[in-house]
Amino acid sequence: MSYIIRPWATGDLKAIMRLIRDSAAFHKALDQLTTTPELLRKDGFEKDSTFGCLVAELPPEQKSKDGRTIVGYQFHYLSYCTWYGRILFGEDLYVVPEFRGKGIGTSLMNKVAKIALEKGCSEFRFICARWNQPAMDFYAKLGAVNVTIQDHWHLCHIEGAHVQKLAQQARK
Ligand SMILES: CC(C)(COP(=O)(O)OP(=O)(O)OC[C@H]1O[C@@H](n2cnc3c(N)ncnc32)[C@H](O)[C@@H]1OP(=O)(O)O)[C@@H](O)C(=O)NCCC(=O)NCCS
């Protein structure tokens, strides 16, 4: 099986949206999904875009049983840590079940690590659900450290109405 890892293009949006939906279903979070191909196009390809995406693409003659050539993706964006400087944040890594265990996930991680170094990042961060032990194992093999266990860091969100409330109280 041959495949390439390449940056996304606008022609991939529908295929990536399908994978995002699969990933959300895998995480039992389909009801939380609000992105659309149009939003991805606007946020990813118009000015001020702050993130990138890599896709894993098969040649057409090796497409999946359900007709896909884009069979994996990973989003990434620059972030900053006051202790270490630039860091790259990975958002979502997904490979369709039919093509797992063939090195595609590792290839996506290899390429994102390369991007991290090219952008001067000292670290590559991402989150993983506690119940997703296969992915935890996969990341551990690549050298990932679980900082929730090691250092007791917890991921916090401020969402929706709370963001609005905070912003409304900003000093003029
Ligand atoms: C995690 C994931 C991206 C890995 O992609 P992949 O293409 O299967 O990974 P690779 O083929 O590069 O596998 C690398 C190694 O991890 C192991 N591995 C990968 N996924 C595994 C799984 N689900 N269960 C058990 N082992 C797995 C492989 O056996 C392989 O081990 P080896 O190098 O000793 O042979 C893929 O399994 C996936 O999409 N899972 C569902 C979504 C998910 O959990 N994403 C991560 C969210 S944080």
From TrEMBL:
Leader sequence segment: none
Superkingdom of this protein's organism: Eukaryota
Keyword Ribonucleoprotein belongs to the record: no
InterPro entries per UniProt: Acyl_CoA_acyltransferase, Diverse_Substrate_AcTransf, GNAT_dom
UniProt keyword annotations, A-Z: Acyltransferase, Transferase
Record domain N-acetyltransferase: where: 3-165
Keyword flag Transferase: yes
One MF annotation (Gene Ontology) recorded for this entry: N-acetyltransferase activity
Pfam families with a match to the protein in the record: Acetyltransf_1
Family, similarity comment: Belongs to the acetyltransferase family.
The name this protein goes by in its record: Diamine acetyltransferase 2-like
